[in-house]
Structures are given as structure tokens and as C-alpha cells.
Amino acid sequence: MKKTNAPLIIYLVLNTIIIGFVLGSLFNTSSTFVAFLFGLGVYAVSLVIALSPFGEWILRMQSGCSVIKRKDQSDYIEPIFKEVLEKARKFDSSIPADVSLYMNDSQEVNAFATGRKTVCITEGILNAPKEQIKATLSHEMGHLAHKDTDLILLVSVGNFIVTFIFIAIRMFARLMSFLFGLMAIFLGRDGIPALGASLYAFICDVILGALMWVWTKIGIMLVMKSSRDNEFEADKFAFNLGYGNALCELLDSFTGSSTTKGLFANLINSHPDKNERIAALMNLGATYSKSYGAK
Question: What UniProt keywords apply to this chain's record, in alphabetical order (predicted)?
């Protein structure tokens, strides 16, 4: 209920109303109130699942993050990760002790946290200086401590589950209707109207599914807006752990260009201007200073 999350709270309320009426009308619920309660129930179930370990697994799959397979990579990064996790938990005990590390194959230097127990790094971050890796991980621990990461699960995974349920049930119903139409034709009855109605309903379902996908994207954009506002707090968390200068150095190395696509790109590109973040860290007490001019 933080002020920075206000746009997303509004989205979630609208989402509940829309899902309630859409699902109610599609499943021929006569009462508007019953339709709303039905949609609310379905959405509530999806949110519970989204905030579970299964929800985190879905998001990891969507963003291409998996268990680190190479032993040399694991041997290098795991001790660094455990060191930062221990330090973060001493500062804020609300961070779970069993946070797990995963990796995406992007060659850019970045990372993101999600849910309650997931931190995902890019493969490219392995080539960064060790202190910068620690700074990045401590920043992500800040997101876990502040519960910012739950928002991503609520929207992207919650809506994914609702959309999946909707499509699965409707497609099954349309398939059965289509098969009954074919059976009517083969039995010498007039099944053409039934086939036409099934095709029309199928097209409507596809359009509605696409609209739900677009609506989910809007929700993720709102998450990103809230995330940008929360980045400064996560930076402050990293500063408090002693990684302020390393984080400034890492931020200053960003060029602003990105080749990463998809959900993972949305997650890692949800940050405010790097100079604003560096300035905020300097105001906190970071002593980092870049040398300018030709040497």
C-alpha cells in the first residue's frame, strides 16, 4: 500500500472488476453480482498461486532464468551470492534464508529479483568486477526486503493463470461444439449452423484472449513505473550494506543501449536514469567520483 504503488493498486481493482464481468458473461452467469463474485474468486485463486513457489517458477520460465548448470560458474558466483545474502539478512531479517540464485543467458550486466525467494542474474554479470556483482546482488536483496517483487508476480503470473484457465475451458467447449457439429453432418442432420457458430465463438475467444494479453502488458508497465520509484530505496539498501561506491561505478558503466527482449528486458530495464541514481547515492554519502577529460 505504498504511495509509489498507487497506479498498480488501481490496476488490480480494475482487473478484478473486468475479470469478474468477463468470466461471468462468458460462462452465462445471469446475475451481475454473481458474475463479479465468480471473477473475484477465480482471480483470488490465481493471485494465491502467483505468490506461491509455483508462481515464481512460472515467472522464471517466462524470463528464461534457470539453475546455473556449469560448475565453474556456480563455484564462482555462489560464494559471492551467499556472502551478500548473509550480510543482507543481518541488516533485514525479513529476507528469507533460502533465497535461490538463477541465471539468464543474456550477456548484458544485470540482475533482477522476483517473488520472495528468487534472484536471477545475467550470464554477462560474471565478467563484472566482484564488488560490482556484490553491489548488484545487494540492490536486489533490497527489493526482496521491501516486497517490491511481489507486484511482478501479482500482475504477470496472476493474469497468466487467469488467461490460461479462460482459454483452456473455452477451447474445450468450442472443440466439443465443433465435434458435435461434425457428428450432426455425418448423421445426416444440418450441422452447418453449429459449425458456423463454433467458428464465430472461437474467433471471439481469440480476440478476447489477445485483449487480455494487452491488458496484462499495461499492468506490467504500471509495475515498471512503481519499480522505477522503488529503485532508489533498493539503491539505499545496497549503500547501507557498504556497496554504494561499487554500485555507482556499475551504474556509470551502463551505456543505455539494450539488446535484451521480452519479459526479462522489461524487468531489468525498469530503472530510472543512472545519473539520478548516482546523484542520490552521492547524497547518501557515496564518495565515488569519475575522472573526466582526455588523459
Answer: Cell membrane, Hydrolase, Membrane, Metal-binding, Metalloprotease, Protease, Transmembrane, Transmembrane helix, Zinc
Q: Which cell numbers in the block locate residue 139?
A: 540492490
Number of domains in the chain: 1
Identify the three-state secondary structure at position 113: strand
Domain that holds residue 127: 1-290
The model's pLDDT over 61-105, given as tens digits with 9 standing for 90+, comes to: 877 899 999 999 999 999 999 999 999 999 999 999 999 999 998
For residue 116, being part of any structural domain is answered with: yes
What is the CB-side half-sphere exposure of residue 49 using CA atoms within 13 A?
17
Burial tier of 73 (Cβ tally within 10 Å: 0-12, 13-18, 19+) = middle
Report the distance separating Cα 241 and Cα 122, nearest Å. 22
Secondary structure class of 109 (helix, strand, coil): coil
Cα separation, 215 vs 76, in Å, equals: 41
In a domain, 172, yes or no: yes
Looking up cell 556499475 gives: 250
DSSP label of 64: T
